[in-house]
Design goal:
Number of helices of chain A: 13
Membrane topology (chain A): Multi-pass membrane protein
CATH architecture of the largest domain in chain A: Orthogonal Bundle
Structural class of chain B: alpha+beta
CATH class of the largest domain in chain A: Mainly Alpha
Strand content of chain B: 15-25%
Shape of chain A: globular
Structural class of chain A: mainly alpha
Pfam families (chain A): BPD_transp_1, BPD_transp_1_N
Oligomer: heterodimer
Main location (chain A): membrane
Number of domains of chain A: 2
Radius of gyration of chain B: 24 Å
Subcellular location (chain A): Cell membrane
Strand content of chain A: under 5%
Order of helices and strands of chain A: HHHHHHHHHHHHH
Number of helices of chain B: 18
Largest interface: A-B, 62 and 57 residues
GO biological process, one term (chain A): transmembrane transport
Number of strands of chain B: 19
């Protein structure tokens, strides 16, 4: 059981990371030129009105003091007040978490459902026509920009065929699912390309490994060699690849949420950045950072579970 | 196969969700609302919904050039122009309580005094606002102000209930307000949509044909258009110029083009070297082919601008000087002014397609007059700081009016007030005095003459270079009638019909 010991002490390492993220986002968002007060007031902003807004949100305080307040809030489980929406950041973000998490989760599941069979076909027929087809597919998938792919899917399935909603997010579970098909497909088409390539490569390595050869020598049919020995051993790198890609996935949802008008954290982040809504940017960045750490943590646990040789 | 299952599932669920919305108008826009406290926003995205939910004392009509009674049935103005007496109409808030002069007075003082008000400057002129009785509101001004009445039509000074606001608290009110207009906020799914339903207590409830309205946020322009093309939204606003031709060809759609007060103009920093000379600025005006900009940038949907008071708005001077496009003459004028080989630093809003297009066009055009233009692309919120600091030679900006009276824009652009005449550092004392005098003048005919003079003087001095006016462009399904905006942007959803 000592192999799982890291589950206990790993979370302690999260604290300095969270502190670091808070400091970096705090500084970065303030390094972007521009001013939330000016965005709020628009073209009619006068020096007096600007000063009034800055004072209200404590933007006229020294930076170190602003950061101190931010940390103090954080310790109390608060994230300050949004300048654009004039409400607390946490409830503002809270309603946006579910769409983003669902989008990422469904996209990952769909990617795996696409990548696994493709990689299996390709690796077992290495160098043949199916293999080349899969490789072309995965190159194309990486090549298409998601916003373009999303629009093409919309035109085909929603405008021409009229079978799926163009954009948005539903209320009921079924409604949500219907709204998520195209955005998930958009993400999955590029994510599964990366995944297919990695899986195919590790499957080929495992197919040629000594234990596979030994299994064949014992007279084990090829399909059993594949399912019992090759597949489990190829999964570990793929799980790690997915975990590493979580950052990329989150970045991807920012684009996809905007294209498909999904009211998630990505969209919130984009608007917060454009209006220099510092508190919201910091809040979303913190949540994304925690999410990334959590995913990597889970991936580590999975890797240990999948491969008995791994120790963390 | 998986896609087919999902699609079949989608058909089942989605089919169910469109059937219910009969008299509910769905409108796609870029961004979702930020608040329902009218004094706490200065953004169109909020103001346009405030107008659906709240009523004001005085309204602007469909043409955007006349005031008409709103919650104030009638009013009188004292001889000295200082005392306004309003008679309130019999009307109710959405909670059934009467809308009284007390509520109106509360509203006016709140927008003037509230810490969070973004509009206190516009209402500083109010000395007192009192309810003589439930029906009579008396407002005393510190100085006479001709534009005062038209500022009362701002959606931000929408009448709100004193008792209701005090009972709910500001934050709860901003989430789910008590309405005085045609619709009430039924539900606000932040980041997604605002769901309005008809307000049965609205004093003009008979006029409202829709059961409800949904303002739905669809940030991507292409996605928003596709939603209307696919029939999943009834209308979409902010149609890009480039899409109009194609959408017009679709037999299921109407493209609605409404006059707006938007004017795009080229700011000039009068404090930078040769730009201080009037002749140099005039030469630049002649070196710019505005028609080419209208053709390329607005796909010919805009119009060449020639006055800072936009076409279709109050006191617009239609015969204002239009300098002909003549790069050769411009070159000569620059040489005469000792400004040959002029080199200008042009601050461009990066990422804004229109601004970047204009920048490239202007660069080519000015080169023909021997002027070198260096494009400096910066983020929009950074460019504002640079303009304020005077760290630029030329830059394109735009302005839309909030009120029908020209005073607001005139003060910002020519009043020598705050922001250095909209960052141009333009100085002309004669103009400054006339702006102040026009604000006080009570006789409309005399006032109009003063604004005509101002338009001529600004053009003669080239305070900035007027580039083009552009309209609001919205697209609707064919079954939608009477969906339009007035030049100030107000949507008259109380007249809209969904067949």
């Amino acid at each position: 059981m000592h192999r799982y010991k890291f589950i206990l002490h790993r979370p302690v390492q999260f604290l300095p990371v969270i502190f670091g993220v808070s400091l970096i986002t705090f500084i970065l968002v303030r390094l972007i030129p521009g001013d939330p007060a000016r965005v709020l007031l628009g073209a009619r902003s006068t020096p007096a009105a600007l000063a009034n807004i800055r004072a209200q949100y404590g933007l006229d305080e020294p930076l170190w003091l602003q950061y101190f307040y931010f940390l103090k809030n954080l310790v109390n489980g608060e994230m300050g007040k949004s300048i654009l929406y004039k409400i607390d950041v946490l409830p503002l973000i809270a309603t946006r978490i579910e769409p983003t998490v669902t989008l990422i989760l469904c996209s990952v599941i769909l990617s795996i459902l696409i990548a696994l069979p493709l990689a299996a076909i390709a690796s077992r027929n290495q160098g043949s026509l199916p293999d080349h087809t899969v490789r072309i597919f995965s190159t194309l998938g990486i090549g298409f920009p998601p916003f373009w792919l999303g629009l093409m899917l919309m035109i085909l399935f929603s405008v021409k065929l009229g079978i799926l909603p163009v954009s948005g997010y539903g209320e009921t579970f079924g409604d949500k699912l219907a709204h998520l098909v195209l955005p998930c497909l958009t993400i999955a088409l590029s994510l599964s390309s990366v995944l297919t390539r990695s899986l195919r490569a590790s499957m080929i390595t495992e197919l040629q490994s000594d234990f596979a050869t030994a299994a064949r020598a014992r007279g084990m049919p090829e399909s059993i060699v594949f399912w019992r020995h090759v597949l489990p051993n190829s999964l570990a790198p793929a799980v790690n690849l997915l975990a590493v890609n979580i950052g990329w996935l989150i970045g991807g949802t920012v684009v996809v949420e905007s294209v498909f008008a999904i009211p998630g954290m990505g969209q919130l982040l984009v608007r917060a950045i454009f209006s220099r809504d510092y508190m919201v940017v910091q809040g979303v960045a913190m949540i994304f950072a925690c999410g990334t750490m959590l995913v990597n943590f889970i991936a580590d646990i999975l890797t240990v579970a999948i491969d008995p040789r791994v120790k963390l | 196969m998986r896609i087919e299952i999902a699609a079949a599932l989608a058909m089942l669920t989605f089919g169910a969700s469109i059937a219910e919305a009969q008299g509910v108008l769905t409108i796609g826009r870029r961004e979702d609302s930020t608040t329902f406290d009218p004094i706490k926003s200065a953004q169109n995205v909020d103001n346009w919904v405030f107008s659906n939910v709240f009523d004001v004392l005085v309204r602007v009509d469909k043409t955007g050039t006349k005031l008409e009674p709103g919650l104030a049935e009638s009013w009188t103005i004292s001889e000295d122009g200082l005392t306004y007496t309003f008679t309130m109409r019999d009307a109710k808030f959405s909670d059934g309580s009467p809308i009284t002069a007390k509520d109106a007075a509360f509203t006016l003082l709140r927008i003037r005094d509230n810490q969070g008000s973004l509009w206190s400057d516009s209402f500083k002129v109010i000395e007192t606002a009192e309810a003589k009785d439930d029906k009579t509101l008396v407002v005393k001004l510190k100085t006479p102000s001709a534009p005062f009445l038209s500022t009362l039509a701002l959606p931000n000074v929408s009448v709100i209930p004193q008792k209701g606001m005090e009972a709910l608290g500001e934050e709860a009110f901003a989430e789910k307000p008590i309405a005085s207009g045609a619709f009430v906020v039924k539900e606000w799914r932040r980041g997604d949509r605002v769901i309005l339903e008809k307000n049965p207590n609205f004093w003009q409830a008979d006029r409202v044909k829709l059961d409800g309205v949904e303002w739905i946020s669809v940030p991507d322009d292409n996605t928003r258009m596709l939603n209307v093309q696919a029939g999943q939204l009834d209308t979409a606003i902010f149609v890009p110029f480039s899409r109009v031709e194609e959408l017009k060809k679709d037999p299921n759609l109407n493209v609605e083009i409404d006059t707006s007060t938007r004017e795009d103009h080229l700011l000039i920093n009068h404090e930078h070297g040769a730009l201080a000379k009037k002749e140099v600025r005039q030469a630049l005006d002649m070196a710019i082919d505005k028609k080419a900009i209208v053709d390329t940038v607005t796909f010919n949907l805009g119009e060449v601008a020639y006055s800072y008071v936009p076409k279709g708005s109050l006191y617009h001077y239609a015969d204002n000087l239009q300098r002909p496009y003549d790069p050769e003459k411009a070159k000569q004028m620059l040489a005469d002014a000792g400004a040959s080989g002029l080199s200008l630093n042009y601050v461009v809003n990066a990422g804004n397609e229109t601004d970047e297009q204009i920048a490239v066009l202007l660069q080519q055009q000015l080169l023909k007059a021997g002027v070198t233009v260096n494009l400096q692309k910066v983020d929009p919120s950074q460019s504002w700081d640079m303009l304020i600091a005077g760290d630029y030679d030329i830059s394109v900006m735009y302005w839309t009016n909030d009120i029908l009276d020209p005073d607001q824009k005139t003060t910002f652009v020519l009043g020598h007030d705050t922001n250095m005449n909209y960052m141009t550092r333009y100085k002309n004392d004669q103009v400054k005095d006339l702006v102040a005098a026009a604000r006080l003048e009570q006789d409309p005919a005399k006032r109009e003459a003063m604004y005509v003079d101002l338009q001529k003087m600004a053009k003669a001095d080239v305070n900035w270079i007027d580039l083009y006016y552009s309209p609001y462009i919205n697209v609707t399904r064919k079954n939608i009638e009477n969906f339009y905006q007035n030049p100030l942007g107000r949507f008259f959803l109380e007249d809209t019909v969904k067949n």
